């Protein structure tokens, strides 16, 4: 996923960075050498725990301007084990969730969860 670094802080477990993505502005814990503020970079996002539909993941009916702390995408698929594939811009975000998901093609919002970011090796 192509993203821009908009803010950097030192977090409890390493650099904490606000990334502007096609789906919103999310706080991530950076793995590896941190980028600089304003830098555009290609990243892979990893959600570090199992999420719950209706809590951290919810359907949204309208597209809004990117908001700090949320990631909006389109639900592509959910398999029998709860592995979720979200389309965010041209990238995919894979995560695990429990509960009853909406139908594929639904716009969903990811919020209030810890995300790790890794430099993408293209």
TrEMBL record:
Lineage: Bacteria, Pseudomonadati, Myxococcota, Myxococcia, Myxococcales
Species this protein is from: Pyxidicoccus parkwayensis
Protein name: Uncharacterized protein
């Amino acid at each position: 996923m192509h993203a821009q670094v908009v803010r950097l802080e030192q977090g409890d477990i390493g650099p904490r960075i606000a990334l502007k993505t096609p789906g919103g502005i999310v706080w991530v814990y950076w793995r590896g050498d941190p980028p600089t503020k304003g830098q555009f970079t290609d990243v892979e996002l990893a959600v570090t725990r199992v999420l719950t539909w209706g809590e951290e993941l919810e359907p949204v009916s309208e597209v809004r301007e990117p908001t700090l702390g949320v990631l909006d995408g389109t639900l592509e698929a959910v398999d029998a084990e709860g592995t979720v594939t979200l389309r965010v811009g041209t990238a995919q975000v894979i995560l695990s969730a429990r509960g009853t998901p909406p139908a594929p093609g639904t716009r969903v919002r990811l919020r209030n969860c810890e995300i790790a970011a890794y430099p993408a090796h293209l």
